[in-house]
Amino acid sequence: MSLLEITDLKTYYRASDGWVRATDGVSLSVDRGETVGLVGESGSGKTTLAKSIIRLFPKNAEIVDGSINYDGTEITELTDRQLRKQIRWSEISMIPQNAMNGFDPVYTVGSQIVEVIRYHEDDTSKKEARKRARELFNELGIDPDRIDDYPHQFSGGMAQRAMIALALCLSPNIILADEPTTALDVVIQDRILETIKEKQREIDSAMIMITHDMSVVSETCDRIAVVYGGRVVEIADAETIMMSPRHPYTLGLRNAFPDISDEDKDLISIPGTPPDLVDPDEGCRFAPRCPFATEECWEVTPEAEDYGDGHMVECHRADEIEYLQEEAAKKETWMEQEIGRPDETPPEVTSDD
Ligand SMILES: Nc1ncnc2c1ncn2[C@@H]1O[C@H](COP(=O)(O)OP(=O)(O)OP(=O)(O)O)[C@@H](O)[C@H]1O
């Protein structure tokens, strides 16, 4: 059994017009030391999935079904207090998209790290915890004397580094990194990502890395899960996802990112917008934007098919890999006017007279 096993997880948000099905039947596993990437457009449910694991979500969110098993413990059955004491930060921690939101503005950054350490380690004195926080600051390139600053006194990059310190201070087994560098200046993005990877190796933890950037996941992840409309539509090892994906959405995503080995590559975007998660239609959620959708795709929700070595795909046409790959590489395939529901054949008019 993997370190983390998520099975058929459904996390919905209560909204004025119904439930937003942000995570809608997701299964995903993470092994010890492994890095799994979650890619997909904004709003596809990546953050919701990660936050569900440590229940760090807003009050209107609810896990309505499914299982999250961490090292033999069913997390969904823990009370909030048990989850805080046994899992959050100590076993599974999170680096959020924007570190400024991760810290409480009324306490100093250092005191919040010290608080987390002491909450989980009864025997650690305040002095020892402060010493550890200072050491971590130093390792992450922040002046240890800044430990008594308030979050607003930090620059974005420093706050993000401090958040990494918080996420690492108890050497967790899993780090959830939610677009950990997007709020930062491009110049320091690579450095921060490198720091996270370095520390991850040092403490030998697993990681779920969320990003909408295919090039980041291809460089940092062992496996990649492609998320669309609240579901994982394709998952495989990083090389398979980058070199021979089977889902048209993955093929489309790949087209939209520059390729370092092919600088002349035409970037092609996927036309259309992500599905409405309040009342999603039957059928494949990608069908309205998919150049390969058939009548079946509009009508029948595809089940995950196993293509070997853990390569799972939710697509009725995933068998036609060569055709899909060839066609998906052409710009005209993704022209908006070429995409849409296949014409229904008009019923034959028969006359009795
Ligand atoms: N508090 C909330 N209440 C209602 N709906 C929400 C809430 N938070 C997120 N959603 C909705 O849930 C869906 C999934 O959002 P989520 O943030 O998980 O996606 P994401 O893939 O992480 O996107 P991003 O990259 O922009 O963070 C979206 O439709 C979003 O509008």
List keywords for this structure.
ABC transporter ATP-binding protein, ATP binding, ABC_Ni/Peptide_Import, eight-stranded mixed beta sheet, globular, 21% strand, alpha/beta
Task: Describe this structure in a few short sentences.
One of its GO terms (biological process) is peptide transport. 31% of the residues lie in helices and 21% in strands. The chain is α/β, with parallel strands linked by helices and 353 residues long.
Distance between the termini: 69 Å
What ligands are attached or bound here? adenosine-5'-triphosphate
Strand content: 15-25%
Number of helices: 12
- How would you classify the helix and strand content by structural class? alpha/beta
Query: Which regions are unreliable across 5 or more consecutive residues at pLDDT < 50?
Result: none
Overall pLDDT: 91
Helical fraction? 25-40%
Question: Spatial order of the strands in the main sheet?
Answer: 6-7-8-3-9-10-12-11
Order of helices and strands, N to C? EEEHEEHEHHHHEHEHEEHHHEEH
From the spread of the alpha carbons, the general shape counts as globular
Domain ABC transporter: 4-254
Region (Disordered): 331-353
Main location: membrane
Protein name: ABC transporter ATP-binding protein
Structure, described:
The protein is α/β, with parallel strands linked by helices and 353 residues long. It has helices at 46-53, 80-86, 99-102, 109-120, 126-139, 156-168, 186-203, 214-220, 238-243, 248-255, 295-299, 321-328; strands at residues 4-15, 18-30, 35-39, 61-70, 73-74, 92-95, 174-178, 206-211, 223-228, 231-237, 305-306, 312-313. The strands form 2 sheets. The chain has an 8-stranded mixed beta sheet, with helices on both faces. Strands 2-1-4-5 form a 4-stranded antiparallel beta sheet. Helix 4 (109-120) packs across helix 5 (126-139) and helix 6 (156-168) runs parallel beside helix 7 (186-203). It is globular. The mean pLDDT is 91. The site of adenosine-5'-triphosphate has 16 residues, from strand 1, strand 2 and helix 1.
